[in-house]
Queue: 3 jobs
Job 1
Amino acid sequence: MQKKNDVNPTTDPQAPARHDAPASAQRRSTLGMLGAGALATLAPWLPAHAADDKWPDKPINYVVPFPPGGLTDVAARQAAKALGTAEHWNVVVENKPGGSANIGAAYVARAQPDGYTWLAMTLSHAANATLFQGKAGYDLLKDLVPVACMASSSMMVVVNPKSPIKTMDDLLQAAKSRSLSAGSSGNGTPPHLTLALYQRLTGAKLLHVPYKGGAPSLTDLIGGQVDVIFSNYPESLAYVKSGTLRALAVSSKKRSAELPDVPTVEEAGLPGLVVANFTGVMAPAGTPKPLVDRISKAIVKQIKQPEMTRSLVTLGFGAQPMEAAEFGPYLKGEVERWAKIIHDANIQVG
């Protein structure tokens, strides 16, 4: 029996921890003496995974800065569904369109950097860094951090099937001999940027006709109101397969499996016209790197799954998985590439 004046070191907070006591008991004794204030001071030094153990414990907001039903939206929803199944993450897609995709991007840039807000970004944002410099409400490379690249689609040069233009060389010769009009889905959009790049590479002069979206531009091409469009591949694919439009080339490095007879721009003598309209994920700057890496690896893992790859192909995309470490330099390179093209072509928006 313990005497009245004996001290039990495992219950007396004033007693030093016994060196022969179990390690767990020593830790409890030490933490008890430290108190809450000291623990707060030590928090930054605790293992990084301790703070992430419960993540995610609420829904993740995946912001798509385009209207519902578009290609970026559909790709984002497929990725969200795959992550829900594989990782048990509740990823909720929210559409915040407007402002040339800047409204949604600015919203994410201002969000808490806790891994719960993602941006579905595209080539448009890489171009917007120059087109809307100082006016977008955010800085793409400073206020957001690259998480992962998922997929990309090429551009496709298309004409009316009744047009005498049958090859890229025909297009160049026609542009040199007469005035040609080229439609696009709007100023500063990927089709417009690709047209500007083509003119820069060839010296050809085409009259740019901007539309409010890809669909009305293709409608006018079918109707003969414009001569050519450097179109988003997924938007014009069905028309080409049905014979409603004729494809001259695709801007990818490899031929399309859906259109194996259509040459690449490199095969057509324009290797500099390779353009990838990519889509990826970004998060607010300041998001902890271990969390960025965790999300990045999970996304890329799902993009590499055969079922996801097949789903992307049906949309007109090709899988282009890149984790954060690779996607960051790639994105910076795309921003710099299009900045020069935009400046050289004097492309203005708004």
Job 2
Amino acid sequence: MSTSDPAPAPPAPFPRVFKVAIAIEVLERLAFYGVYINLQVYLVETVGLTVAAVGSMLATFAIFRSWLPVFVGGFADRIGFRASLLVAFTGYTLAYGLLFAGPTEALAYAAILGMGLGGAFMKPVVTGTVRRYSPEGRQTQGFAIFYASVNAGSVIGKTTVYVLRRLLSLRTSLLVGVVGSALALLTTALLFFEPRDDREPARREPEPLFAVVTGYGAALRNVKLTAFLVAVSGYYLLIEQFYQTFPLYFARLAPNLPRELVSLVNPLTIAVLQVAVARASKRLDPLLAMTLGVLVGSISMLAMGVVPGLGGAVASFFLFGVAEMIFSPRFYDFVAAFAPKGKEGLYMGLALAPAGLGGFVGGKLSGALIERFMPKGGAIDALSIWGTYAVIGVGCALVLFGYRATLGRGDATSGSA
């Protein structure tokens, strides 16, 4: 009588706290993207700010939401994940409420700072929950579910605000942010509880803020790392233009077309092609892959300018989806390679710096280009606006290629001052 090997044990299920965190991420992203896709238009058309003032405000927002988590993230370990989420969504709900209730410049600034502060407390917690509570051997799947939830939130939020804007008003569509954040706050209060495990060793007390700051200073003395972070900031300047330039551009160029739905081409492209693009680009050297991603992003910008209107916009969002799939995975892997043992979190915090720098410069540049080439009631010179961004992208790609030829060889951790 033959015996067969026992069937392998089924994989451990994801715990409840993981599932609640994913639901919270969907609510936060639908609120954020639902508001951000129309924020520029709202600030110009409803609040009545000048294009230059809006560009400066969005530049400030980019810095605040990208760099603040680097310094606030440590507080999440001190006060606990649940308390951090309660703080985050209280701030988010109040911020979106201010934006809706008081369409003035002062309250708009308060609102975007509140949104940045909410994100600073929220971002480390959800990713930390995914990392901490994904079952052994299922961490990769856990993060895949997390990234899918980001895209799901984007699709739901943008679709909802389009319906509200068309049926009611642009201002009313901001309530998506208020309601989404309030639901996330309620979900946290009622459902988010970390399981207690007495077998788990005591967690290390987080480093004081001063030690964190000095740690970043030491990391940035690595010339290779600092040069790389500055070089790739041009990529983030490009990606921010889908929120810093596109909404007002499309609202003036094609006011009857659904800019929110057009923007969904990007997350849908990623959802459909992510596996195929990853397979096609996995053999590329990391720096070459990132350079290629920036070049595809530059072509995306050019498409918007060469073909003004719906066709160019769809092509642009599609191409930048491809650029993201090529660039983003290699970027985070490349930054992680610089980290000494035990300093991975600190170095990954620095990965946010290029987004802040690129978004800040992009916001200022966007205001200037819109004023010059897209005046209200005047002719729209789409090629001059989007062609400028394409040239910046090509310049960024050339800098990355030069970086690879000079500083990009050898051990990543070498090059300290």
Job 3
Amino acid sequence: MFRNIFAISDIELGQGDIFDDFKDEALLLKFLRKITAEPGKNTLVLNGDTFDFMKMPYQDKFTHHVTEEISLWKMQRIFDTYPKIFQALSDFLNKKANKIHFNIGNHDYDLLWPEVQKMLKKKLGNPNKITFAFTFDNKEVHIEHGNQVDYFHKMDEKKPFIKYRGTKLLNLPLGSVAVIKYFIELKKEFPYQERIYPRHSAFETYPEFKKTKQRISRNFILRGLLFNFIVNIGDPVSNVPYINLIRHIFFHGLEVHDEQKFLKKRFKNIVKLYPDKKAYIMGHVHLTYHELTPNKDHVEIVTDTWREEYRMTSNHEELLKPRTYAHIRYEDDKLKTIDLLNFA
């Protein structure tokens, strides 16, 4: 009997507006149909940022005070924008042995709301075959988005909700609040340039993009960090976790753009928390990484995004990045292969 685990990350489905970076519906549908046709027992791990709640305005406004009502409204807008994708997911689940697991990423913390989970289960059908968590684990494999080992985007799992003025809100981390209150302006002004990696190359090629980013960063440092206790007095969602900020500076200095530099430390933290696995898989950082550790005891994989992004070459050419996925294959309950593959 064959058993497969497929993992993809960072699809970032939105509502089809300027902030929605998902562009290639046909390719995702092709992928979902391919894995639906696979024989055996199949699990699809949607490894975080499946939905881009964070960059979706609510009734034309952005707010970091996210209620369950707001998240339900956004979920419905995503349903309305991509009906074919939800039908394809439903078709995958309709095969008797198939399951879907949603890992929660920093763009879709809204999936923590019980009513949002219930709404999504109802949409896809087969609710007993759908699960939600921050991680997916079996004996050999650990899969997580990567936000929980990112000091800027780590959610307090013990306190995901918070009360403010009698209203229950998502207890969003610093990174989410920074995007919603400050850096969404950069996305609005430079929707294409924001999808070019590495970020340093995008800044070199588009000086106005860099200039605007620096202006917003200064504003965030002054208002969002240094004078936060005055600017956001009494707002618990805007509290700055200064300890996490210090940890990032201690390990990585002031670097915030070069995600490649952060990987080893993040994988080290994950392995420490979940030892003795054969494969550790992340998303989140919008790059492709596949490494067998020096002592050859496990594989570390990062799947790249399924939103539309471009890679800047040394000749300043902007090439569409390939879509990648992880494929873990079992035969008669024995682990056979662990692959990172391109899909076209």
